[in-house]
Fold these 3 entries.
Entry 1:
Amino acid sequence: MRGALTLLAATTLAGCATTPTPSSPQDAFFAALKARCGQAFAGKIETNQAADADMQGKAMVMHIRSCSPDRIEIPFHIDGLGPDGGWDRSRTWIITRTATGLRLKHDHRHADGSKDEVTMYGGDTSNAGTATRQEFPVDAESIAMFKATGRGVSVTNIWAVETTDAGFAYELRREGRHFRVAFDYARPVAPPPAPWGW
């Protein structure tokens, strides 16, 4: 009897040792994006504000181009807005892990690869979010940059990134402003050229 109980206890402990710890919503979110690394998808703008009139009806592609354990780079390409009327490859969304959550930054470049006056702005998550949606309120560094460059309207920005079984979305919100683009995971496309300056 004692031998049977010892065997049962050992089996139970072994079972506990191999049971994976549930990942946090941010871990699950990061892993879901990373699982599609190297893939690119077609999309479109979903909002209709005057500030984004030049993007209406334009072809768009997002490319989960580079992934490491703590960083994912996602270039955002827009057709028809480049300096020669071709593709605008100026934007890359960068999501990184931090000690307290996730961070979103925007790398903006010119066609010659030089950095835009306003680049590497963004923010950090302020809560756990969900496995499919993370929000990034503007950080102090970005607020200072916006004020210094005459973009005071942006100091209350909140960005969001979503990834679901259906697709990917990027969103910007503040009072009076809503911008959202979405990409369909059922519409993969060939990976585009590297973004400007990369």
Entry 2:
Amino acid sequence: MNLLLVGLGGSLGAVSRFWIGKIMSQKFGADFPWGTFCVNLLGALLLGILSAFDADKNVYLLFGDGFLGAFTTFSSFMYEGFNLFKSSEKLNAFAYVSGTLILGIIGYFAGFGITGMLLNMA
């Protein structure tokens, strides 16, 4: 059952990441990896929200390990960041790497904190 939940969530997450990446590239161009940048930040926010719910094991397997595990991508983040440095786009590389890390942490804590406050108000 665990593998089925992770596989189902992962399939949906991977397809969503691919779709959002294509839309972002078409809309903003390929000079900056906007797709991966936005997906990773959104994933951090959503993981913070999911964590605040203290979801049961099956929900976490489906959405946390499955969907968000495939939706966000550390490997693409490293590949694109390295390629920006390699192609002498140092400012874009620095903005991409530091922006992803800093805003990702802020996004996680914002999702966790805001959801926690809303749950305590209910």
Entry 3:
Amino acid sequence: MRAPRPLILITTSRAPSPRTRSLVKDLELVLPRARRLTRGHLTMAELAAIARARGAVRVLVVGERRGNPSIIRAYKPTRPPLEPRLENIVTFIVRGASLSRERGARPGRGADSLLVEAGEGSEDVADAMVIAFGARLLMPGMRPGEGAVVASLTASGDEVLVEFRDWEGESVGPRLRLARPQRMVKGGSDA
């Protein structure tokens, strides 16, 4: 039996630091049907062509500043008959990242689905995660099934803390401090 094609390709900006590469590995294990792609010298157009060929519906590009992850851009690949390109749909500003290896948490097992549990004041980030990652909102009384990862969001001022748990409630993957998401009005910006 053949594995399903990835829905999300995750890569970095060019010449990433070890922390940024580790964040990409962590994200691969908590986002549903996500696969890492080594960027190398690939252009955005080449990333779009690869995403189209693999049937991906999202491409995430993790950028950095001074060796630390600082931005996650979510792109939607165009569909035929349009030329392959990536349209920027959501940008998350990363104000802090705590990697699974730094916290002694399990990196994750590979998620079948991502459920977002929005705390009070974090609804905008929850909506952006649904759009960017193909997540679903966790409704009251809903129990995550086996293979699900829950992203719990806690608002604090102008930031939102994102913590990932597996279906058994154990902490997995990275812990992120995000600024409020920004909707991008023009697509295909260089990363």
